[in-house]
Amino acid sequence: MSDTKQLVSLPPLFQETFKKIIEIVDNAHKTKTTRRILRSTLRDLNPLLQEINKYNENLDPPREEIKTLIKEKDAGRECLRRCWSRIWCKKDDSIIDSGGGDDKHALVMANDVKQTLIKVREILQVLNGENFDEKFNGGPTKGPCSVPENPDFSFGLEEMLWKLKMEVLKDGVSILGLTGLAGSGKTTLATKLCWDKQVKGKFGGNILFVTFSKNPKLEIIVERLFEHCGYRVPEFQSKEDAIHRLGFLLRKIGKSPILLVLDDVWPDSEPLLEKFKFQMPDYKILVTSRVAFPKFGTPFILKPLHHEDAVTLFHHAAHFGGSKSNIPDEDLVQKVVRGCKGSPLAIKVISRSLSHRHNKLWQNMVEELSQGHSVVDSSNELLTCLQKILDVLEDKSVIKECFMDLGLFPEDQRIPVSALIDMWIECYGLDDDGREAMAIINKLDSMNLANVLVARKNASDTDSFCYNNHYIIQHDLLRELAIYQSTQEPLKQRKRLIIDKNEHKREWWLDEKQKGMIGHMFSKFLRFCVKPKQLKVSARALSISTDETCTSDWSNFEAAEAEILIFNLQTKEYCFPDFVEKMSELKVLIVTNYGFHPSELDNFKLLSSLSNLKRIRLERISVPSLVTLKNLKTLSLYMCNMNQAFESDTIPISNRLPNLVELSIDYCNDMVEFPISVCDITLLRKLSITNCHKLCALPTEIGNVENLEFLRLSSCTDLEVMPDSIGSLSKLTLLDISNCLSLSRLPEDVGNMYNLRNLYMTNCARCELPYSVINFENLKVICDEETAASWEALNPNLNIEIPQVDVNLNWLFH
Q1: Where is the RPW8 domain (predicted)?
Q2: The last residue of a domain, from among 254, 278, 301
Q3: I want to staple 606 with a disulfide (CB 3.0 to 4.6 A). Which of 416, 436, 581, 703 is the partner?
Q4: Global pTM?
């Protein structure tokens, strides 16, 4: 087909654009840059058309003109695809400017009309009782209720897996129960069931995996289900409202079969299980618990492993990543395995702990395990068994302490590695770069006392100060072990004090003997009628978990010696207790809200009196205006609303945070412009702004941060330009702009950054390189293939590395 015939057959919307292309086809040279420009001609319109189409799916019936518009767009794309092979041209910026400007304006107007119609429909839904927002992406997506990673290895579960699968694949509504002692492999079995091909074939994307934990909160579970399924998360007025919305959500996605896994359900949560029962076809619930719930039928009981399977599991775990020579004679192995009594958790932890250790230690473990009853008779006896492992830890003074610190965080929640590094650097004197802390974390991981999860692997993580993508997850029984170790001392003498203040545990300040003596009813009377005496604790670390059901009275509490303070919140608002003002030794403050919507903090001004406070980490918090913290070195904001944080007042931010060295801002999507006032903090050496998708530009004043050494801007997808003043950052050694998809060019003077050693540019193919990059001699560039070609053309002598693409989807679970 000739160009003229192509032009005649092309729909009117794209005729002008195609004319422009034809004019330059035969007059220039073939380049990658030109191909990218031509590809983007229609691609720029594609998101808008898709959005209109999504709106259109929610309006009955669809308008024919929109269908025609989409067909024209597809026809234009096909026509352009045919002519790619004929394109021999040099760059012509007019293509971009002439890509159907009037037609795009018409599309915007059509989109506005569609938005208005959708809003009207939403109002009608509210009036009809359908008070939740509909998504437009066509189906459930990955999210916080996704199935965990498929276990690398498991043994002895095949028979039970087959039985569960047959029951799940049956037609009809049912609730299945799976029970077993702690550490018996219930979660592993449930996970493998969800990854089974036949199960996935039936339920598809409607497999929802919810961890209940010991004190579940209905509203938070429903929030996560909404987020997981791709719907806007509502704010619930009450538990009844949350249940009502949950019913709408399940019926919405229930056009296909649903499998809901409720993992780690505790006995007190049986009434809550009832809230998840809805009369729907092909809706199944699998409940895993340490106890059976007779009301929901006869459960499947997961028994201890047979000896042969236990030995196989032991061998696999013991020389995982090593050789069989790590293990002594088989007789000792058989004895240790028998001592574990078929508990998969005990087998895996003990095998890893004994690997590479001398025979005497194995013999000591055999003697310890041979005393007393089976380790699976109760959770307490399994804890006693696992406790013996801590006796074989190297450098107990640090590693054992770090293990017990994991108990400061809530069960079944991912623990940010960056938070642990902050704690351990300040309290144990580890290196500021976090490498010693990571070595301890890897040691705990190698012993199966904790598992390291890398949510999304960035090449720059190993070279920079930032571990934002690293987390620790821990079996709840190992967390109980850490807490048990921490509670062996009397309350007032403990190194760690873990306070859980909620509707189930309000009398936290009573020790176990007092609770047993006064009884449940008298404890209620005591709680409301008698104030406790002044309670002074000498704990080095204080962890407080609270929800909205509990009102706090801290008037008689004092923790002046604490160096670490952790708040685990499930509240919309929280007011710092007055005792915080007197925590003169406090070095690290970590505040995490585990709800979906950011929590409002009050009484933040109390922190201004804490002269030793060095590090603050806030997660899902609406950050108030920062107070004067003259010795603060590190500030980390994760998924926060921070539009008030750096507001100007009578005291400049450089005077409020004069010694700030490190600032990390991650997933803070209310930040459109970077606060100019931060550029006045002259001591700032490390600045990380990642996953802030609305950030479109950096201020020119960024060049004033003369001591900056690390600058990370990765995954700021709307960032279009970097100011030329970046070139004046003469001390910068690392720059990360990976996944800055909209970045059009590097500053002209970037080649003047003679100390720059590492530049990360993966997925930055659109970013043009200035001529000054020829000045680099010792620079290492980590990038994709297309970006590498641009660098090789200008400076072929550089060290250019193309990392392997990471397809891990764990980053979607934040």
Answers
A1: 14-85
A2: 301
A3: 581
A4: 0.72
